[in-house]
Amino acid sequence: MSISRRTTARSVRALGVATASAALALGAAGNALACDISEFSAEAKCADGKGVITVTDMDATGTPAVVSVFLENNGADERKVGEQEVKGSKEGVTVTFAEDWKPNAEYRVHVLAGDKAEPVVDKDIKPNLTTPSTGCTTEEPTPPATPSSPAPSESTPAETATPTPTTSTPPAATPSNAPSPAAQESHLAETGASSNTGLIAGIAAALVAVGGGAVFLGLRRRGASGNR
């Protein structure tokens, strides 16, 4: 039994439609699995009181990519913060750039994924990253220093000054009517009375006795001579 041309044409047409549908489905699936800039995100935050910029790659295909971060100034690159390689995953892989960012600063984040000659992605993350309005460290005013009292020093106690003996001047003798010792000696010398008066009187008495004895003996001899 031969197949009519109409039947053959219908079969070919149906096969073509199926093939085109499969190609569109594969193309959509391929586009869905391809690396895309929308799978990258950037954030400025603080870690241990210091500023950092993080970039997360959620490319499920794991296409190797190079992430570059630039500080912007009036729409132009002021300086390059750094560059790191990342290989994303469905859960997301994050790379961190140490950057002491200032409040309200603007950064450009560029992603180059795939072969450098024919990259899959060669774009910036849009919009540019703007840092928070508050920095990571806030400088608190330093309170005025309170003068501290000096610590007691273990110094040797001062030596106690030895009191210097003071010579007191004896009070002047009050004049009295009693004669002074010099005056008494003078009077005794004038009257013959002194501390040797007794000795002198004794000697005088002995001399008187000796003289009296001599006179008595002389009288006796004289009387004896007369009786002869």
Describe this structure in words.
The chain has 228 residues and is an alpha+beta fold. It is built from three helices and eight strands, in the order αββββββββαα. It has helices spanning 5-33, 181-191, 197-227; strands spanning 40-47, 50-57, 64-73, 76-87, 93-98, 106-114, 119-124, 129-130. Strands 3, 4, 6, 7 and 8 form a five-stranded antiparallel sheet that branches. The longest helix has 31 residues, at 197-227. The termini are far apart. The relative contact order is 0.10. Residues 22-32 and 182-193 have low confidence and may be disordered.
Q: Spans of 5+ residues with little confidence (pLDDT < 50)?
A: 22-32, 182-193
Structural class: alpha+beta
Percentage of β-strand residues = 25-35%
The number of helical segments is 3
How would you summarize this macromolecular structure in one to three sentences?
By secondary structure, the protein is an alpha+beta fold.
